[in-house]
């Protein structure tokens, strides 16, 4: 590889072996005979003490974990003065350096007394504030944690607060504490850097999304002695991303329903009309009155089926039209009471027990007819597909999770084989039991109603044990 107008180290696969370029010696005023060209000698005799820890961590992480870095460091020259360099790994360069081995480049920066350092510190502080990026480190030997000024501001802790590993769980939302623990454990024990999105909690209990980046710190013996890292407040960006993803999912769902709708229109209606046309032609060609009478009965059957299909399609269109209706407060207890009164005969004949618990979420702003329809379809389904060896027991419960409202309807029926029918559960005219009353429209309509109100519905089931439908509003 050609020598650049700067100094560099060429790193080899042998642990901690480097070749220092001639230009690197020249810039500092050394010869190959006056200093040792190895990492340990560089840390002990050449680099400024203030830069040792960070450079050692960066270099070893680049060596061990291929984590690229950029850093300003001061190096002692042959005249006994420190020169300022910008240290960059080859993969972090603005140009692509193709080589079989790795490189670390040292670009000399003319040092104008302390002004350059003060200027760098000023820009560091400005950058941290403008990007909401805080830095921190955990020292395992001293058993202490440290934050910079921006970390205190972001996490809303007073300046006299002393961060501690004992309190670390309090810095993260309950749902992401395990993720935080796993990242720290892998970094501390195996030297694995982390770069992840995680939900944090401030001193004032405000939750926000953050980008957390961490890497191990090493001592002279190349042992891990701590973790150094940064985190950035990305709450606005993340919430917009989640909102956008929800919109994409809604659009995808709407496109899927539109495709399904178009398929039913083109296939089912055409099938009915083709059969009608064929029967009319046969009737015209037959003279026997008895045969004609039999064919006319067939016409009535097809006409009834055609009318049913049109009614189903009309219901789907109505759902999409009515979802703009004004939402009003609806009590789950009242909606369930209306449904039970409407199918009391069905419940009585099947010896069904319905247990409800609406203590956690008593009401919701919704279209009343939709909530009643959702409950009706889920309850009647549970009764239709009851287990032959036991009476139906249906549990209906509302609850809160992460600020969202949920409705869970579970039964002890025959269950659904989700390995075979998972993609068909909410499909139109999709059935997965040999029940003669199965039409395959109820769950399809329920899913449409839920999603038209920006909600989701999912199913869990086990054959011969029962089924659970969960609606997130």
UniProtKB/TrEMBL annotation:
Catalytically driven reaction(s): ATP + protein L-histidine = ADP + protein N-phospho-L-histidine
PROSITE patterns found in the cross-reference section: HIS_KIN, PAC
Protein name listed in UniProt: histidine kinase
Cited Pfam families: HATPase_c, PAS_3
Keyword Phosphoprotein: yes
Ranges where the Histidine kinase domain occurs: 264-473
InterPro entries tied to this protein: HATPase_C_sf, HATPase_dom, His_kinase_dom, PAC, PAS, PAS-assoc_C, PAS-like_dom_sf, PAS_fold_3
Domain PAC: 194-246
The EC number(s) this enzyme carries: 2.7.13.3
């Amino acid at each position: 590889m050609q020598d650049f107008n700067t100094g560099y180290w060429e790193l080899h696969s042998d642990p901690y072996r480097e070749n220092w370029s001639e230009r690197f010696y020249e810039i500092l005023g050394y010869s190959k005979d006056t200093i040792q060209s190895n990492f340990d000698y560089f840390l002990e005799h050449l680099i400024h003490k203030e830069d040792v820890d960070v450079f050692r961590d960066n270099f070893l992480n680049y060596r061990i974990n291929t984590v690229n870095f950029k850093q300003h460091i001061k190096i002692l020259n042959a005249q006994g003065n420190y020169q300022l360099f910008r240290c960059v790994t080859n993969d972090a360069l603005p140009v692509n350096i193709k080589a079989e081995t790795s490189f670390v480049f040292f670009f000399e920066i003319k040092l104008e007394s302390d002004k350059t350092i003060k200027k760098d510190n000023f820009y560091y502080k400005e950058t941290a504030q403008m990007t909401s990026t805080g830095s921190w480190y955990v020292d395992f030997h001293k058993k202490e944690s440290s934050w910079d000024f921006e970390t205190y501001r972001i996490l809303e802790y007073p300046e006299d607060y002393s961060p501690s590993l004992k309190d670390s769980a309090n810095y993260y939302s309950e749902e992401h504490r395990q993720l935080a623990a796993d990242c720290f454990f892998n970094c501390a024990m195996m030297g694995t850097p982390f770069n992840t999105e995680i939900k944090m909690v401030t001193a004032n209990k405000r939750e926000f999304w953050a980008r957390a980046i961490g890497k191990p710190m090493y001592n002279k013996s190349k042992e891990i002695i701590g973790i150094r890292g940064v985190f950035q407040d990305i709450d606005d960006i993340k919430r917009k991303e989640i909102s956008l993803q929800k919109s994409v999912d809604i659009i995808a769902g709407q496109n899927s329903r539109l495709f399904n709708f178009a398929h039913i229109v083109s296939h089912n209606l055409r099938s009915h009309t083709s059969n009608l046309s064929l029967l009319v032609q046969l009737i015209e060609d037959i003279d026997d009155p008895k045969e004609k009478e039999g064919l006319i009965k067939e016409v009535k059957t097809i006409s009834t089926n055609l009318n049913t299909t049109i009614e189903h399609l009309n219901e789907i269109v109505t759902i999409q039209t009515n979802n703009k209706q004004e939402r009003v407060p609806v009590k789950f207890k009242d909606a369930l009471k209306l449904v039970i009164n409407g199918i009391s005969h069905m419940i009585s004949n099947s010896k069904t027990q319905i247990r409800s618990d609406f203590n956690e979420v008593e009401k919701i702003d919704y279209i009343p007819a939709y909530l009643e329809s959702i409950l009706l379809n889920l309850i009647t389904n549970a009764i239709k597909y009851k287990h032959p060896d036991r009476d139906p027991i249906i549990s209906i419960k509302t609850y809160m999770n992460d600020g969202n409202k949920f409705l869970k309807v579970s039964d002890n029926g025959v269950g659904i084989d989700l390995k075979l029918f998972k993609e068909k559960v909410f499909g139109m005219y999709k059935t997965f039991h040999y029940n003669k009353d199965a039409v395959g429209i109820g769950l399809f309509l329920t899913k449409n109603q839920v999603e038209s109100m920006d909600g989701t519905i999912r199913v869990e089931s086990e054959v011969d044990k029962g089924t659970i439908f969960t609606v997130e509003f």
